[in-house]
Design brief:
With 131 residues, this protein is α+β, with helices and mostly antiparallel strands. Helix 1 packs antiparallel against helix 2 and helix 2 packs parallel to helix 3. The chain starts with a helix and ends with a helix.
């Protein structure tokens, strides 16, 4: 399942149809991550990139005879995306907007400058398991 979907996304990224994101300026771009049965896609806030993602999902559904459950699919925007652009993208993708994910797989989804405070719980859980 993931290999076909990943190939479609990678092909779009290599063709500069979607641009992904970076964790810092010198890092490579990441267009997608797969964790268990979840997919996380990264794209710019352009209607063209979002239309490309919608098209990839459609191709994948036709090729695999599986349907993406859009009622369980969410989009998260950076603070700089205006509300009209957000609505355009939501309409293109047919998904709902989520304001913020607190945690995913028991890890914080948004990390600010204070990484030490964020990862104290993770460090404690790891130490507990090692003991």
């Amino acid at each position: 399942m993931c290999r076909c979907f990943s190939t479609l996304i990678t092909k779009a990224a290599n063709g500069n149809l979607i641009h992904g994101d970076r964790i810092c300026r010198s890092a490579p771009r990441v267009s997608h991550l797969f964790l268990a049965d979840d997919s996380i896609l990264f794209a710019k806030d352009s209607t063209l990139e979002c239309s490309t993602i919608a098209n990839i999902i459609s191709i994948y559904e036709r090729a695999s005879s599986q349907n993406v459950n859009l009622s369980k699919t969410e989009v998260f925007f950076s603070k700089k995306v205006c509300s009209s652009r957000r609505q355009e993208i939501i309409d293109i993708l047919g998904v709902r907007e989520v304001e913020r994910h607190e945690k995913y797989l028991r890890l914080p989804t948004i990390i600010g400058r204070s990484k030490k405070a964020i990862f104290v719980g993770l460090k404690e859980r790891l130490l507990k398991k090692l003991q």
